[in-house]
Amino acid sequence: MADHRSNMTLSPRIVALIAKKEYREVMHEKTFILSVLIQLFIASFSTFLVIGLTSFYDPTALGELDMGSTKIAVVGNNESELYLLLQNSDLSPILYSEFSDAYTAFYDRKVDAILIIPEGPPDGYEILDIDIYLPRSDLKATLVSLQLKEPLEKFEQSVRDIRTKRVSGYTPLDLNIVERKTKTSSTYFEFLYVALLPLLVFTPAFISGGLVVDFITEEFERKTIDLLLVSPISLFDVISGKVLLATIIAPVQAFAWVILLMMNGIVIHNVVTILLLVLVVAMILVLVSGIISVMFKERGMAQLFYSLILIFLFMISYLFTNSPMNLVTRLSIQSIGGLETIVWLGGYSLLAVVLYGGLLKVVERE
Amino acid sequence: MIDIIISMMAGWVTIAKWEFFRSKLKFDARSLILLALSLLLLIGASYMAAQTGMNMNNDMYRVTLTNPALEPVLGIDQRFNVMTVDVNTASNMYATDADLVIIDPNVFMADTQKSASASEALKSTLKNYREGVLTSYNDINNTHPVWVTIHYLERPEAFQVLSGERRRASEEDGATTQLSPEEIEAAAPGGRIAGEIGAGATQKRPQTAQELQTIQTRNLFEKQTIATPSHFAPPIPFTAILYSFLFIFPIYFVSQFYSSSIMDERTNKKCELVLVAPLRGADIVIGKTVPYLLVTMAIIAIVIAYIKGLPTDIVTIKSSLLILATMFPIVLLFFAFSFISAILSRSFKELTFAMVFLSVVVSGYLFFPAMFANVHAISTISPMTLIVLLIEGDTINMGEYIFSTLPFYFVGLSVFVFGTYIFREEDLFTQKPITQKLLDCVEIFLSNPYGSVFLLSIIFIPFVYMAQLMLIVMLFNLPLPYSVIVMIVLAALIEELVKSIGIYTLFKRKMVVLTLKNAATLAILAGAGFFAGEKLLVIITLAPIATSVFGSVMTMGTLLLIPLMIHIIGVMVVSLGMYAINPRWYLPFVLFASVLHGLYNLFILRGILFG
Predict the structure, then answer these.
(1) Is residue B215 domain-resident?
(2) B284 is in which domain, residue-wise?
(3) pLDDT bucket at B279, cuts 50 / 70 / 90
(4) Is A31 an interface residue toward B (CB < 8 Å)?
(5) Which segments of chain A are extended strands (E)?
(6) Range with the largest mean pLDDT of B109-123, B328-342, B528-542
(7) pLDDT at B560 exceeding the cut of 70
(8) Among A238-242, A262-266, B281-285, B545-549, which range has the highest average pLDDT?
């Protein structure tokens, strides 16, 4: 066994050599290609979400898409304000006098919903109950609900305009938004910058953490570490080399994602800062999983703890502003000042340095 | 007889016991404490995160205000980074340092996507603020004068899964039969049983402000039945993803240990001793797998109890058991993939990536269609949809269960069988290339007295089916004509590959003499086998999606003779090609056959594709 001191020395040349060796193996086993495939899959999952879900479930995202007008059956008075609002909406209402006729039309798929207009006057005192009948387990139900929402809200507003005057001390807050040419759905915009972009740039960092577990535990489990340690290479050299390679491949992949998104016409600001952040976060994750691997020396255990800690970190990043995910969002849309960026990036780098110290301690104990 | 069975069982039971107690021992005191600690941390963090509403969009819009009174209004939304300045400064900041500038009562915005998005966000915030203020008055008739009651009615679907009509657990009769005049009378708004038809409106309109608040904090898993227009929301099936995660995380963790354990036997040749013992490979595989399967199913049972509550009445017990039964094939497939990855991989890295890749693919297969639960019939290809339905209180029928789980059972079990074939020294402890190991599987299958290329083609059908459904999902986001074209080419490639792999193995491994007669006979057998399996599959499962464009790519309509010919011709090209030149030319010929096959499919579908 190597003696205590040689365990701790650090030689940059050897670190680079170890990194190169791991790099060759990763390339040889084509695991890297698999990793890129995984990420492509996640990306296609995300675009599926963007295109599929936001357009299905967000009416404003459907703005440009002509859904055609959905026919709905309306039972009740044709002079009601609600009926007029429905006529002016994207829906085409067909008036029925009897519910049973409307139901037959619904059953025969001539209309996709039935709406019962309430009888009470808007300026009355009793509540106005609207009954809506939707088809179960049908895409139409969702689409009709989306189209119904606007006329229903307008109707609510007009009734409220009359009735809230009776509520003492209530003054509605009115802001006049001066609209401009550019229109976008905030669901789409926020999905892109809050979910998709951070997820894509950090996925390589998550993968790097897992990669390092395998790099290190494999040496322990195959007992090849003993062979390395008889040579003049220290354990810390070996570990550092593996950490180095796993860290630097993360921003390279993240950069590829950024380019891909940009080619799709998505504007991303502060690219260099974002990549720097990915580098620091990858370093943090790789060091955490490095410490775990040296402690447990066994793949199953180390992967379990790494996953648990990864989810833990993910959860706590919901808790504060400028978590790495949030920071990527704010950087990419220029919502953060230079000083704030430097302070937080510095903070994360400091954490990485502390973790490197931790790794040193753990290796020292071996 | 009995003692033979016992002695047969004894082998794997011994291994199972050993595996169970040994892997338990891996958790020494230190790891157990650390595990408990990190789980506690995780639960704590998740709880706190859930309190904040799970948003990562803090401070993404910059808003400048002139009226400090508006600060608390915007403060309720964490998306806004608010700054209050005087009017002069505000008008200078317009469109440069702020996305929105609010100089009471006007809101100015820049002509950018971000500003437009910020103004949308502002509108929803103002709405939430308004609702909050109005609710505080406790005068419902004046503040919330309009209420919408949503009823769900059954009617014939454009798509029907087999004969599987959706039923509510509470309803006994077939629900898609048209209502009788009396029932219509009852369903009409005057009749009070209106809510009982279809979705069953259990919620009552609130009378006080407190009730109003409780009704608005609706449980994520509940369907909305009554709301004011401002709170009226279309049913969003995101819950399906949540369930999938809850159920799949445990599987993922346990399969990590499982694959590590299999890999462990291979590194340092630990398994050598066991293989020398008078045990069959199957004993070892079953013995090593069963403990992990049991543990996973136990964890899943706990998750079910967490979601559905402890099973006390017969209905809950039944649906809990059905959920378990639906999860089982999923677990089986995950484990089958972990098993084969552990056997094929040459290193831990390779194992991790193979497992992550396969997990992501399987999860995708589970997630995508389940998002459309209650929306589209195609969603039932994913067992997760059945689980969503079961959790929501529906029942499922046998046809639906078979439709979505059969491919999982088939693929899972056949992967296990193929893996067990190569659970032997020469494959476990050597650094053979993966392709060679795969060919070993096929070779052992074909050297079995019952093995033939005909049967092999049929066995591969569920694989092809799952792979092609996965393609549909992945190609969903390409624009329409292209997605179908790419789908056709890739689908043909998969089919040609599996049809000819048996013949390639026979020739390559010199199991059959490379003659013209052999090449032709084998091609006919393999092609006919695939055709038979495909038609069998169509009968069992594809009925509901056969009518969509993607479905017709997979089944190619009702033509019988021509598809048989094209399947045979495809293999024939490869088979004769290998005969004429050399088995080493296998891949180029497969590509060539795929192109032919693809062109034929394109020709058939030209009507749909090009108008």
Answers:
(1) no
(2) 1-54+236-432
(3) low
(4) yes
(5) 71-75, 92-96, 114-116, 128-135, 176-177
(6) B328-342
(7) no
(8) A238-242
Specify whether the CB–CB gap between B244 and B384 falls below 8 A: yes
pLDDT score of A3: 45
Q: Is residue B208 part of a domain?
A: no
Mean pLDDT of A168-175: 79
DSSP A8-76: H---HHHHHHHHHHHHHHHHHTTHHHHHHHHHHHHHHHHHHIIIIIIHHH-GGGGTTS---PPEEEEES
Residues B403 and B372 occupy one common structural domain: yes
Rounded percentage of chain B residues whose pLDDT exceeds 70: 74
- Chain B nearest C-alpha distance from A271 (Å): 17
Query: Are B344 and B283 part of one and the same domain?
Result: yes
A11 touching B (Cβ < 8 Å): no
Interchain contact A149–B (C-beta under 8 A): yes
Query: Considering only CB atoms, which chain A residues are within 8 Å of B241?
Result: none
The winner for highest mean pLDDT among A32-36, A334-338, B224-228, B598-602 is: A334-338
Angle between helices B398-421 and B314-344 (to 10 degrees): 30
Tell me how many domains chain B contains.
3
Whether residues B265 and B322 share a domain: the answer is yes
The pLDDT value given to residue A247: 93
Q: Does B187 reside within a domain? A: no
Do B256 and B401 fall within a single domain? yes
pLDDT the model gives residue B586: 84
Residues B42 and B89 in one domain: no
Q: Check whether residue B358 and residue B461 sit in a common domain.
A: no
Q: Which residues are within 8 A (CB) of B9 and not within 5 positions of it... i.e. 6 or more apart?
A: none
Closest in A26, A48, A305 to B368, CB measured: A48
Of the candidates A193, A194, A315, the beta carbon closest to that of B49 is on A315
Query: Directed axis angle between helix B516-537 and helix B561-580, to 10°?
Result: 150
In 3D space, the residue among B311, B412, B397 whose CA is nearest the CA of residue B358 turns out to be: B412
Tokens standing for residue A176:
């006049």
Report the mean per-residue pLDDT for chain A: 82
The pLDDT assigned to B271 comes to: 62
By Cβ distance, the residue of B42, B252, B476 closest to A312 is B42
Q: With 50 as the cut, is the pLDDT of residue B106 above it?
A: yes
Same domain membership, residue B408 and residue B470: no
For B55, B213, B317, B400, B405, the CA distances from B322, given in Å and listed in that order, are 34, 35, 9, 12, 12
Give yes or no for A270 touching B (CB within 8 A).
no
Which residue in the set B38, B46, B55 is minimally distant from A309, CB to CB? Answer: B38
Q: Which of B95, B112, B136 is the last residue of a domain?
A: B136
Which chain A residue shows the shortest CA-CA distance from B118? A186
Closest CA of chain A from B576, distance in Å: 32
Which residue blocks in B68-189 are alpha helix, DSSP H?
Answer: 71-75, 87-93, 113-135, 140-143, 181-187
The pTM of this model reads 0.76
The distance of B375 to chain A (nearest Cα, Å) reads 5
- Are B353 and A336 inside 8 Å of each other by CB? no
Q: How confident is the model at residue A46 (pLDDT cuts 50, 70, 90)?
A: low
Strand A71-75 relative to strand A92-96, pairing: parallel
> Which of A357-361, B25-29, B494-498 is predicted most confidently?
A357-361
Nearest residue on chain B to A59, alpha-carbon basis: B234
Out of B432, B456, B474, pick the residue that ends a domain: B432
A251 close to B (CB below 8 A): no
List all residues 6 or more positions away from B502 whose beta carbon is below 8 Å from its beta carbon. Answer: B442, B446, B453, B456, B457, B522, B526
Domains and CATH numbers, chain A: 4-56+185-365 (no CATH), 64-166 (3.40.190.10)
Which of A29, A136, A185 is facing B120, going by the closest CB pair? A185
The answer on B4 and B125 residing in a single domain is: no
Per-residue model confidence (pLDDT) at position A202: 92
Within-domain flag for B87:
yes
